[in-house]
Write a structure and sequence with these properties.
By secondary structure, this protein is an alpha/beta fold. The chain has 2 domains: 185 residues, Sandwich (Immunoglobulin-like), CATH 2.60.40; 260 residues, Rossmann fold (3-Layer(aba) Sandwich). Helices cover 12% and strands 24% of the residues. The protein has 7 helices and 24 strands. The strands form 6 sheets. It has a 10-stranded mixed sheet, with helices on both faces. The chain has a 5-stranded antiparallel sheet with strand order 7-6-9-10-12. A 3-stranded mixed sheet has the order 8-5-11, with no helix packed on it. The N terminus is likely disordered.
Length: 466
């Protein structure tokens, strides 16, 4: 196998790098004859030192020197999940993904939880940069032309890098969805390091699988998969430890970019709101992301933590059902803030909801009555009585200004992957081959939002600076 290492000022090739790897050289296979984008790989070299055929000025650097004076050399495409086209209904578009052409080597992510605030430059000193819209579409304007142009597609710590064999100058260059999809495994790119406390009631690992993550990435914590399964009351891997091994150690928590606590058989920390709760808030305050559903509400509602702020994120009530029980529950997407409006449009664009801003939710419960600013309300119901709030999100540290917040929490008051899977099964035996349901697609949207950079949700997302 021939590999060419990427380094500034040299002829290089750009490929994929696994998140958390200690390998700081970005490598690209050249023996297959097919590039990472699915195109001809006969010429994968990138000359960062410039191209004498295009010169934008005496002060240009590297690929800036290959931007054409016409200003209309563009890349267009749609960023999608890694779901294969022939499985689970195919890939879905991704909102608010970052797309850019780097002008320098792209560094490996620092392993472990870190503070990722919006407005921070991405790695690689972009020549041009943009975000995707509610349809996952983007237009990257005034890109460098010529052969072997690198491209990065990123959402938080999801990241894929490809080489475009040739970009024609002064026209739109359309990319395929296979070029601009998310990675399926570490060989293709970066995947966040995720921990799941398994649940029979909410098999969220199956949703990640349907989002295109390869089965080999789901492992026990002693192996190097990107998604570690801890045994709650749900699925296991052959050596999954108890979920107590996850939440009883701050050091263990801090290994992960995000943790998923789907519905448990009882409130998780209700009987022990002490150190585990403090550790969870410390983890979130340093940049950790947490997704909890239904009976795992206790991580937020009952968690006095280090600041006492988590219970103040919402008007929590005693957990209970909705009377009369209604399945599905008629619910609405809150469109009063930019990302909520984007979720409503995204769901309708992909055909998950026929009516803009309306969705039927399965297996719903009631534990949130109100939200306290700046907590965001995403999904809510009005009838039957009582009205409920079904999905919320908030940034941490609680009470700090938006530009000082690093972490993020999401709570869903319904079983996202509705339908009990049964305990004691070994992954992926609990998963089915059906396409994602409407509420599973909500989690898909929320999951990428949870992992993206932290910002004030009252303002529209903006591209990182270049």
């Amino acid at each position: 196998m021939t590999r060419i290492a990427l380094s500034l000022g040299l002829v290089v090739a750009l490929g994929s790098l696994g998140c958390g790897s200690d390998n700081n050289g970005l490598l690209f296979d050249t023996d297959s004859g097919v590039g990472a984008d699915g195109g001809d790989n006969s010429d994968t070299s990138i000359q960062f030192g410039g191209d004498s055929s295009v010169e934008t000025g005496p002060n240009c650097v590297n690929l800036q020197c290959r931007q054409d004076p016409c200003g209309t050399t563009n890349l267009t495409g749609t960023v999608v999940t890694g779901t294969p086209t022939n499985l689970y209904g195919g890939p879905d578009p991704i909102y608010n993904a970052i797309v850019y052409v780097p002008n320098a080597p792209v560094a490996a992510f620092t392993p472990g939880v870190t503070c990722d605030k919006c407005g921070t430059p991405v790695s690689g000193n972009p020549v041009v940069i943009t975000l995707t819209d509610e349809k996952g579409n983007f237009t990257l304007k005034n890109v460098p032309s010529g052969s072997s142009i690198p491209l990065v597609v990123q959402v938080g710590r999801w990241r894929r890098q490809i080489v475009i064999p040739n970009v024609n100058k002064c026209v739109d260059n359309a990319l395929t969805k296979d070029q601009t999809r998310m990675p399926r495994n570490q060989k293709e790119g970066d995947i966040p390091h995720i921990a799941i406390a398994s649940s029979t009631y909410d098999a969220e690992e199956c949703i990640l699988r349907k989002m295109g993550v390869d089965d080999a990435e789901f492992t026990d914590p002693m192996k190097n998969g990107r998604i570690h399964i801890y045994h709650g009351n749900g699925v296991t891997t052959p050596n999954s430890p108890s979920d107590t091994a996850l939440w009883s150690s701050l050091k263990t928590m801090q290994q992960y970019d995000m943790m998923l606590f789907p519905c448990s058989s009882a409130p998780t920390i209700g009987s022990d709101p002490g150190q585990p709760g403090k550790d969870l808030e410390t983890y979130m305050n340093s940049g950790g992301r947490v997704f909890a559903t239904d009976l795992s509400y206790s991580w937020f509602k009952d968690n006095s933590g280090v600041s006492g702020g988590l219970p103040k994120t919402a008007g929590w009530t005693t957990w209970g059902g909705i009377n009369p029980y209604t399945n599905p529950l008629p619910a609405f997407v809150d469109q009063t803030f930019p990302k909520g409006k984007a979720l409503a449009a995204w769901l309708k664009n992909i055909g998950a909801t026929p009516t803009l801003g309306q969705i039927g939710l399965q297996e719903t419960y009631h534990v949130v009555d109100t939200v306290n600013a700046p907590t965001s309300r995403w999904l809510y119901s009005q009838a039957p009585s009582p009205p409920t709030i079904q999905t919320i999100s908030f940034n941490t540290p609680i009470g700090k200004p938006a530009d000082q917040q690093c972490g993020r929490g999401v709570y869903s008051n319904f079983h996202v992957a509705n339908g009990q899977s049964g305990g004691g099964q070994t992954f992926p035996n609990e998963c089915n081959a059906s396409p994602l349901s409407a509420q599973e697609k909500v989690m898909e949207f929320m999951f990428f939002d949870l992992g993206s950079c932290v910002q004030d949700d009252t303002v529209p997302p903006q591209p990182p600076p270049n």
